[in-house]
Structures are given as C-alpha cells and as structure tokens.
C-alpha cells in the first residue's frame, strides 16, 4: 500500500511537470512550433500551416486534459471520496483520448520522417482508442481489476510525446542518426515501450497487493 502511494506520488510529479511543460512550450515559448517544424524537409504533402497549428493546439490541450483526468482517476483517495466524480472524470478521459486521436489523424500524413512515420502514428490511432474502449467495456461488465489493468495500459499512451522525444534525442544526439530517422525510431520504439511497460507495472502492482 505504501509502495503504491509512493508510486502514485512519483507519477503525479512527472505528469504535472509534463502538463506544465507541454502548455508552456506549445502556447508560450514556441507557439509557431518552429523548432519542431524545422525538421520537416521534403514533405510529400504540403502543410497548411495555420490549420496544422490550430489542430496541434487542440491536440495538446486534450492531451493535457487526458493526462490530468487519468491521473486523478488513479487516486485511491479521490475514488473513495466520490465514485460519481470517478465516473464523470472517466468519460472526460475517454472523450479526450478520442479528440487526441482525431487531431492526430489530421497531423499523421504530414509526420516528420514521411510515410513510415505516418504509418506508425496511424497504428497508434487504432491501438490507443482500442485499449481505452476495452477499459470502458470491462467496467461496464463490473470487472474492476481488468478495468484497472486496461486503464494502466491506456494511460501509458499519455506519455507518447515524451517517449518519442526522449528516443529521438537518444538516437539523434546520442548515436548521431539523422533527425528524421531518429524520429521514426522514436515513434516505433515508443509503441513497443508503451505496450511493454504497463505489463510490468500491472505485474508489479499485483505482487504488491498479494504481499
Ligand atoms: C497524450 C500526450 C501527448 C502530447 C502531450 C502530445 C503532444 C504533441 C505535440 C506538442 C506535438 C507537436 C510536435 C512536437 O513538439 O512533438 C504533437 C504532434 C503529434 N502527435 Fe501528439 N501528443 C500526445 C499524444 C499523442 C498520441 C497518443 C498520438 C497518436 C495517437 C499523437 C499523434 C501526434 C501526431 C501524428 C503528431 C504530428 C507529428 C509530426 O508532425 O511529425 N500524439 N503531439
């Protein structure tokens, strides 16, 4: 129980920092996404910049709502206080995931790294809603543990952008790969990591409960 609490505290710190960083970076520090867009060279599809930027703002906004809503719903204390809040907030999470995916659907064809990266994002556009809907289906069937496990799997994808950028930096700055290739590796590497890490968390939390 103590370990679960400190795990939640760590998750809360990382998530809050990430939300503040995403909002500051995309709306205040670099609202034109100039740094990110500077890596887009030789795009097959022309980018309509004003539309792309507005879609990106909506994307980031709902990504932050999903991160915050998910975090609140993993809190045992909040759950114990109000099941109604947990339910309503859960629907906010699901709606936000769908809006992140919808906006991603617009941006994916223009992805840095070209068609291969676009395919990776399109895979994510199917995987994330599928996992999230599975979490919803499980709780409709009153299967609480399965619902919790599917939510752990779904919530991992809130860290997609962080994971892509960390892997991109590792391959680009660390191993000297071209930026676009590093980004493509970042996307596929993130899909793999974000599917594997939750399984480890689920196993570890199961053992914590038993011990
Ligand atoms: C939930 C946390 C997420 C946050 C905070 C986030 C944030 C961002 C930001 C800031 C960008 C602009 C480029 C950059 O600076 O990276 C972006 C681009 C993008 N995001 Fe997300 N994102 C998240 C999750 C996702 C997920 C789960 C998907 C796919 C289902 C996705 C698909 C995309 C796509 C396709 C682009 C355009 C990439 C490109 O042009 O190369 N994002 N995201």
From TrEMBL:
InterPro entries: DUF2306_membrane. It comes from the Bacteria. Pfam families: DUF2306. The keyword Magnesium does not apply. Keywords: Membrane, Transmembrane, Transmembrane helix. The chain crosses the membrane at residues 56-79, 91-108, 120-139, 151-171, 183-202. This is DUF2306 domain-containing protein. It comes from Paenibacillus thailandensis.
């Amino acid at each position: 129980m103590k370990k679960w609490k400190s795990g939640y505290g760590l998750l809360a710190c990382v998530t809050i920092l990430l939300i503040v960083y995403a909002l500051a970076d995309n709306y205040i520090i670099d609202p034109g996404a100039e740094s990110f867009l500077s890596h887009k060279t030789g795009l097959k599809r022309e980018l309509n910049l004003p539309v792309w930027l507005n879609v990106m703002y909506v994307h980031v906004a709902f990504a932050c709502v999903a991160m915050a809503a998910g975090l609140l719903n993993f809190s045992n204390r909040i759950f114990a206080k109000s099941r109604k809040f947990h339910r309503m907030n859960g629907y906010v999470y699901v709606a936000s995931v769908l809006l992140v995916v919808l906006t991603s659907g617009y941006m994916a064809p223009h992805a840095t790294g070209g068609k291969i990266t676009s395919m990776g994002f399109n895979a994510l556009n199917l995987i994330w809603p599928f996992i999230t809907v599975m979490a919803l289906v499980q709780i409709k069937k009153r299967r609480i543990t399965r619902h919790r496990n599917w939510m752990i799997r779904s919530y991992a994808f809130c860290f997609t952008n962080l994971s892509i950028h960390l892997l991109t930096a590792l391959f680009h700055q660390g191993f000297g790969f071209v930026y676009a290739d590093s980004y493509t590796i970042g996307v596929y590497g993130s899909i793999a990591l974000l599917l594997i890490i939750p399984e480890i968390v689920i196993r570890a939390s199961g053992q914590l409960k038993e011990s």
